[in-house]
């Protein structure tokens, strides 16, 4: 079939516009990095609506030019985004407030909720699968307290992917896979929930209609056509959360299927046939983008961001060489890391902890057990140790899910930026002891979003069938049992070291990498 499907992925650290053929081949991509603004208030991460819309428009124009695609060849467009990020609108449909996913300004409000409404977080978790760690409820209370005039103007709330489609079409709706991460959503009903809102003095009538991912519900407006270069009238199709649509792009669309998406954060996803929640509240549960499925989710925090920090701060030589040779600096770092034996000479990185959703915080970023021998603590060693650490946290998170769900997948599907590293894929297989398969299209979220667009355009019968039909595997990595046994020892040492490092944060000797609001 001729024509192209346009996917817009508004992630934590960047936005991408990607064109795919209906057969699932990536035709072109354009991306822009973005940052989120503080205002001096602790934990604030504002989302710059107007500036970022201009970046999205630039990406759309660039990708169409690079792909040699005219506006009338775009069959449909859809969007995915970081979850938890919310946008508020007034009665005229103007955006009046927006924040990124890990905005943590509402610490006092979380403490208030936990002290004055002691039962509400557990009730909310049982209803929505979410704690207050990234919920919209404390954020709304913060606005009510600190910006009462703005709060009085709030007429609608949406998630970030909804906002992208709203800007494209002028129509506002939400899908379950992203809306559920607001903490104001019923897993079982796959619809908004007002549980506790009236009790807290929060509005109960600010929610847009719920539309399942893959449903065509609007068209590109004349104004958006002028902004983006798209054709007015192009179908706009409901998208969703980046991780859940990433699973669609990986064909992870059946009960028990397991995926790892390696981006700024690393998410571990296990598909569930029913919306069961964790009694210990250590795991979040979300709606899958596929109707009739849910997901147990754990998160390794700032994995990709830590790698980016390490590259930018310590690897200037590799960055210069990469620019001269026309390669990725990470590729050069992996080549060096191959010379380092498993275990990275005992270096233990302290960055993300395993997921503790009910009391989520991390130790101070650091490297432990460094040697004064440069051959055992150089950049190549530290880089490999970071790769190993991401895999160790992933394995520990999957163990948490397994203890709760009793689901143990025979194979792990790995995608996202992390899966581009051949060494990293093998390390993940060795640490988990599971075969790891990597798709041809690494931008699984973008492909899943394109599948949503194609489903709305009647190219695929359903999201699940589109995902199953289009995913193709590039490589499968088989674990080495001896290396797996070695990594089990490394993981045991890391867990003990991390416990001690968390204690330093508890005693205010060091500062946490990140704390959920209220901790």
UniProtKB/TrEMBL annotation:
Keywords: Cytoplasm, Kinase, Transferase. GO terms for biological process: carbohydrate metabolic process; quorum sensing. The keyword Kinase applies. GO terms for molecular function: autoinducer-2 kinase activity. Residues 290-455 form the Carbohydrate kinase FGGY C-terminal domain. The gene is lsrK. Residues 6-249 form the Carbohydrate kinase FGGY N-terminal domain. Its EC number is 2.7.1.-, 2.7.1.189. Belongs to the FGGY kinase family. It holds the Pfam family FGGY_N. InterPro entries: AI-2_kinase, ATPase_NBD, Carb_kinase_FGGY, FGGY_C, FGGY_Carb_Kinase, FGGY_N. This is Autoinducer 2 (AI-2) kinase.
């Amino acid at each position: 079939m001729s024509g192209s499907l346009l996917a817009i992925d508004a992630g934590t650290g960047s936005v991408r516009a990607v064109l795919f053929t209906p057969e699932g081949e990536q035709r072109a991509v354009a991306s822009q990095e973005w940052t989120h603004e503080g205002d001096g208030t602790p934990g604030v991460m504002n989302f710059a609506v107007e500036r970022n819309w201009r970046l999205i428009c630039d990406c759309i124009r660039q990708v169409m030019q690079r792909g040699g695609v005219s506006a009338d060849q775009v069959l449909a467009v859809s969007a995915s985004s970081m979850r938890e990020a919310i946008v508020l609108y007034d009665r005229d449909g103007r955006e009046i407030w927006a924040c990124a996913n890990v905005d943590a300004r509402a610490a006092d409000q979380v403490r208030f909720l936990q002290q004055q409404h002691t039962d509400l977080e557990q009730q909310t978790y049982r209803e929505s699968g979410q704690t207050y760690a990234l919920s919209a409820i404390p954020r709304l209370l913060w606005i009510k307290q600190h910006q009462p005039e703005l709060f009085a103007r709030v007429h609608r709330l949406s998630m970030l992917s909804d906002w992208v489609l709203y800007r494209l079409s002028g129509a506002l709706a939400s899908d379950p896979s992203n809306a559920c991460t607001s903490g104001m959503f019923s897993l079982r009903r796959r619809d908004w929930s007002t549980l506790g809102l009236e009790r807290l003095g929060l509005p109960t009538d600010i929610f847009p209609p719920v539309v399942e991912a893959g449903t065509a519900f609007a068209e590109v407006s004349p104004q958006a056509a002028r902004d983006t270069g798209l054709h007015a009238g192009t179908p706009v199709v409901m998208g969703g959360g980046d991780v859940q649509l990433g699973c669609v792009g990986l064909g992870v669309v059946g009960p028990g299927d397991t995926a790892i998406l390696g981006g700024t954060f690393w998410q571990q996803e296990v598909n569930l046939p029913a919306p069961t929640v964790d009694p210990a509240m250590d795991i979040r549960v979300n709606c899958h983008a596929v109707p009739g499925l849910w997901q147990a989710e754990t998160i390794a925090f700032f994995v990709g961001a830590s790698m980016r920090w390490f590259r930018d701060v310590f690897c200037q030589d590799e960055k210069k060489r990469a620019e001269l040779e026309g390669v990725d600096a990470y590729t050069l770092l992996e080549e060096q890391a191959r010379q380092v034996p498993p275990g990275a000479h005992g270096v233990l990185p302290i960055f993300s902890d395993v997921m503790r959703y009910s009391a989520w915080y991390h130790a101070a970023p650091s490297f432990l057990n460094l040697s004064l021998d440069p051959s055992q603590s150089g950049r190549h060693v530290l880089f490999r140790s970071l790769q190993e650490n991401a895999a160790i946290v992933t394995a520990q998170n999957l163990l948490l899910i397994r203890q709760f769900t009793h689901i143990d997948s025979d194979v792990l599907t790995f995608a996202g930026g992390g899966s581009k590293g051949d060494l990293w894929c093998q390390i993940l297989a060795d640490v988990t002891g599971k075969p790891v398969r990597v798709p041809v299209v690494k931008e699984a979220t973008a492909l899943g979003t394109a599948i949503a667009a194609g489903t709305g355009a009647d190219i695929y019968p359903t999201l699940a069938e589109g995902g199953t039909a289009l995913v193709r595997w590039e490589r499968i990595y088989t674990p080495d049992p001896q290396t797996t046994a070695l990594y089990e020892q490394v993981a045991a040492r890391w867990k003990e070291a991390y416990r001690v490092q968390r204690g330093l944060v508890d005693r205010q000797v060091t500062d946490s990498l990140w704390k959920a609001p209220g901790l």
